[in-house]
């Protein structure tokens, strides 16, 4: 539940902090994308992936409480060219949620190159960041949600919106799984989240960060600069009981003050139930879209910030930006991104 604007302290370990998660259909396949380590933090950004960490895609099926499929990436130390070796393990069944399970080694490769085995493809490296939002708009909504006050967009001019992330880059992991996969077959109902985990001195693993729906952290916990919020380290199965009430109350307060819901408390509970557990829902081999009418996966073109800000406030929040904003930063073919 991290985001691009982590504090300098967190950004020193930006390799472990998740910026975005995308899930969308590919070419007869399902594509999973995890972005970390935005260089918007400037001098604090360290290139590459953490060589003592795990980067995991977690998949739940049919609304199950726990994942039964995990794709685990790990990386070696950078060589003289800054490239790193990568390994992908698959874990299924109850092993999918066990840090002690080794899983099956599926493929190996190097960053900056396509790795492929049994129709599974992976690519990891630095890309131009496709995420887009004007942070001035986010600041307006943040203020209202944090204080429970009315949303005032009188100072916001969508026609003057600028992408605050233009020219920035992130490290990305792209994984493509064919529809012939026994679990990720067309029509399968999935819930996807991702996590970074770091090896501990005691020989175990500690979950550092996780991501599911976009914009959760910058909307609901922007002031948690010391990352004391336990949302980062818990499992999604605990989300509704541990954060449902808080999120419902925050949403209720802002829509009550803004006058956009006849039953603010009921609307708050509805939004919390839609967003928690914090996993990205997607039906395999269907069009992906994270928008107003549909939230089914997420593509790199989707204006997810506009959709989320509008959902939380129960009113149209025009971002002034469109998918054309990042059109040059995505491609229709693997690895679906623009390396830098």
Instruction: Give a short account of the largest sheet.
Output: 7 strands, antiparallel
Stretches with pLDDT under 50, minimum 5 residues: 1-11
Radius of gyration: 19 Å
Distance between the termini: 25 Å
Give me the number of helical elements: 6
The average pLDDT is 93
Number of strands: 14
Beta-strand fraction estimate: 25-35%
Class inferred from helices and paired strands = alpha+beta
Given the C-alpha coordinates, what overall shape results? globular
Order of secondary-structure elements: HEEEEEEEEHEEEHHHEEEH
- Share of helix among residues? 10-25%
Structure description:
The structure is a single chain. The chain has 340 residues and is α+β, with helices and mostly antiparallel strands. Helices cover 19% and strands 28% of the residues. The chain has 6 helices and 14 strands. The chain has helices at residues 8-11, 135-147, 216-220, 239-258, 264-275, 304-313, and strands at residues 18-25, 29-36, 53-61, 69-75, 85-92, 104-110, 115-117, 120-128, 169-178, 189-199, 205-211, 280-283, 289-290, 295-296. Strands 3, 4, 5, 6, 10, 11 and 12 form a 7-stranded antiparallel beta sheet that branches. Strand 13 and strand 14 form a beta hairpin. Helix 2 (135-147) crosses helix 4 (239-258) and helix 4 crosses helix 5. 48% of the residues are buried. The model is unreliable at 1-11 (pLDDT under 50).
